[in-house]
Amino acid sequence: MYKLSAVIIGILIAIMVTINGALSKGIGDYKAVLIIHIVGLIAVSLVLILRKEKLKFNEKLPAYLFSGGAIGVFVVLFNNIAFNKLGASLTLSLGLFGQLIMSGIIDHFGLFHMKVSKFKSKKIVGFFMIFLGIIVMVIY
Asked: How far apart are CA 136 and CA 66, in angstroms?
């Protein structure tokens, strides 16, 4: 079930980047990011209302855990900018490559209080194959 969810996430991200990029091209990068996040706020607010959930904050959580929204703004902005110059496939491929590198670093060092999962040299082959695939996409 979780693996299927991950595949669905990938499909939704491809659709989202395409729609967001088109909006950005139509009204501008910064206005698009604002609209995208306002619509997202409305959508999640409706979900919370329908589920009758109240906002409760745990004061013991580290402050950096609340930075995801700010990071998300820049993710959407950079996706929009890249999409309009590179297209969906290359934007998503390069983004995925960046995610693989950063997730490997996070796992290896246990950053953000994550469980340490040391990087195995076998993974370098996979990273290299993905990198070669991106090079082929850039050339052709």
From this structure: 38
Distance CA 25, CA 71 (A): 21
Structure tokens at 44: 């999640």
Do residues 93 and 133 make contact, with C-beta atoms less than 8 angstroms apart? yes
Total length of the chain? 140
- Provide the whole-model pTM: 0.83
Q: Could you give the percent of the chain with pLDDT greater than 90? A: 79
Do the beta carbons of residue 36 and residue 20 sit within 8 Å?
Answer: yes
How high is the pLDDT of residue 58?
Answer: 84
Joined tokens for residue 11? 């499909």
Q: Distance between CA atoms of 36 and 64, rounded to whole angstroms? A: 23
Q: 72-92 burial string, b = 16+ CB within 10 Å, else e?
A: eeeebbebbebbeebebeebb
CA 120 to chain centre: 24
